[in-house]
Amino acid sequence: MAIHLYKTSTPSTRNGAVDSQSQVKYNPRNNLIYGQHRCGKGRNARGIITAGHRGGGHKRLYRKIDFRRNEKDIYGRIVTIEYDPNRNAYICLIHYGDGEKRYILHPRGARIGDTIVSGTEVPIKMGNALPLSAISSSTSRKPYALEEACTVWEGVLIDQKEESTSTDMPLGTAIHNIEITLGKGGQLARAAGAVAKLIAKEGKSATLKLPSGEVRLISKNCSATVGQVGNVGVNQKSLGRAGSKCWLGKRPVVRGVVMNPVDHPHGGGEGRAPIGRKKPTTPWGYPALGRRSRKRNKYSDKLILRRRTNHLLKKINKLNTKAEKEVIISWSRASTIIPTMIGHTIAIHNGKEHLPIYITDRMVGHKLGEFVPTLNFRGHAKNDTRSRR
């Protein structure tokens, strides 16, 4: 991905950095696209706004993407690499040997003229799709790498020159476009730059580490594509002006404190008045920070071995690389103190304000909320239902 930096000749081009798209200027294939009516624009069936800041945008043609990769044991060649307005990853057109033509997600490092194939006994090569059951328990074999001498994620290296002829996927392989249900098509790790890691195999399941840090069990019969999704530098773009964001179908974001009381709970008052509440809320009155949105007792809870990386832990790991340690503000009272937190100062909310506490080795294993008591104690254990209000 090539980032084009604008000159600061006008206010609209100042600090602008966009994708030049010099290598993806191809027209889509007519039989693989269809028009779609982007109805709703964030409204439900009654016309009420349920998802804010959506509306407008340029017209789009939807590209039919092959997430199933069910062309088994038939080699295909990458003909074009194209831009898709419906996703931040690029797509590539594949011409198969039987005459079939399909779009797939563009793997990082794939070029025009490369060949790919899907099946149960195919080489471990970038862009090839195969089931997770084709896993080698031997760790002596080198995992598939995505770019030469470049650490992409969790120590997974990329090597385009070496093409493995083995049909067993070694542990530590970088994969994307992962199925959750057999035959439904890939649903995980499909965004630009996304990559998951194959950790272990046991019984009928395979253990994967997803881009969010979540460790999850997936059926070994489900398929995945080897490699990483392309367009890795998409997070380096800076649109530079509001008009470019409107082309994407995103409306301006307005603060609640400048609205009227009828529009937002934070609105109203004379001049620059505070929100008038202990905690920020959504336009519908629910807590805006820290409220759990995941359904309780969901069927997939038993498949998740470890939840995604905690925001508090991300802040601590970021500060460990710096010489000066700043005060970390957190609302997580139920978090368990681990050795990584020793030496940091964490400000925990007690229901009224944030109180800083210095973490020592004697506090390891306890909850953060135990050292910042509240007026009405609600408990800090995960099994305590009172703390989930």
From TrEMBL:
<comment type="similarity">
    <text>Belongs to the universal ribosomal protein uL2 family.</text>
</comment>
<feature type="region of interest" description="Disordered">
    <location>
        <begin position="1"/>
        <end position="21"/>
    </location>
</feature>
<keyword id="KW-0934">Plastid</keyword>
<dbReference type="InterPro" id="IPR023575">
    <property type="entry name" value="Ribosomal_uS19_SF"/>
</dbReference>
<dbReference type="Pfam" id="PF00203">
    <property type="entry name" value="Ribosomal_S19"/>
</dbReference>
<dbReference type="GO" id="GO:0032543">
    <property type="term" value="P:mitochondrial translation"/>
</dbReference>
<dbReference type="InterPro" id="IPR005732">
    <property type="entry name" value="Ribosomal_uS19_bac-type"/>
</dbReference>
<dbReference type="GO" id="GO:0005762">
    <property type="term" value="C:mitochondrial large ribosomal subunit"/>
</dbReference>
<keyword id="KW-0689">Ribosomal protein</keyword>
<feature type="domain" description="Large ribosomal subunit protein uL2 RNA-binding">
    <location>
        <begin position="42"/>
        <end position="118"/>
    </location>
</feature>
<dbReference type="InterPro" id="IPR022671">
    <property type="entry name" value="Ribosomal_uL2_CS"/>
</dbReference>
<dbReference type="InterPro" id="IPR012340">
    <property type="entry name" value="NA-bd_OB-fold"/>
</dbReference>
<dbReference type="GO" id="GO:0015935">
    <property type="term" value="C:small ribosomal subunit"/>
</dbReference>
<feature type="domain" description="Large ribosomal subunit protein uL2 C-terminal">
    <location>
        <begin position="124"/>
        <end position="287"/>
    </location>
</feature>
<feature type="region of interest" description="Disordered">
    <location>
        <begin position="260"/>
        <end position="290"/>
    </location>
</feature>
<dbReference type="GO" id="GO:0016740">
    <property type="term" value="F:transferase activity"/>
</dbReference>
<keyword id="KW-0687">Ribonucleoprotein</keyword>
<dbReference type="GO" id="GO:0003735">
    <property type="term" value="F:structural constituent of ribosome"/>
</dbReference>
<dbReference type="InterPro" id="IPR020934">
    <property type="entry name" value="Ribosomal_uS19_CS"/>
</dbReference>
<dbReference type="InterPro" id="IPR005880">
    <property type="entry name" value="Ribosomal_uL2_bac/org-type"/>
</dbReference>
<dbReference type="GO" id="GO:0009536">
    <property type="term" value="C:plastid"/>
</dbReference>
<protein>
    <recommendedName>
        <fullName>Large ribosomal subunit protein uL2cz/uL2cy</fullName>
    </recommendedName>
</protein>
<dbReference type="InterPro" id="IPR014722">
    <property type="entry name" value="Rib_uL2_dom2"/>
</dbReference>
<dbReference type="InterPro" id="IPR014726">
    <property type="entry name" value="Ribosomal_uL2_dom3"/>
</dbReference>
<dbReference type="InterPro" id="IPR022669">
    <property type="entry name" value="Ribosomal_uL2_C"/>
</dbReference>
<dbReference type="InterPro" id="IPR008991">
    <property type="entry name" value="Translation_prot_SH3-like_sf"/>
</dbReference>
<dbReference type="Pfam" id="PF03947">
    <property type="entry name" value="Ribosomal_L2_C"/>
</dbReference>
<dbReference type="InterPro" id="IPR002171">
    <property type="entry name" value="Ribosomal_uL2"/>
</dbReference>
<dbReference type="Pfam" id="PF00181">
    <property type="entry name" value="Ribosomal_L2_N"/>
</dbReference>
<dbReference type="InterPro" id="IPR022666">
    <property type="entry name" value="Ribosomal_uL2_RNA-bd_dom"/>
</dbReference>
<dbReference type="GO" id="GO:0003723">
    <property type="term" value="F:RNA binding"/>
</dbReference>
<feature type="compositionally biased region" description="Polar residues">
    <location>
        <begin position="7"/>
        <end position="21"/>
    </location>
</feature>
<dbReference type="InterPro" id="IPR002222">
    <property type="entry name" value="Ribosomal_uS19"/>
</dbReference>
<comment type="similarity">
    <text>Belongs to the universal ribosomal protein uS19 family.</text>
</comment>
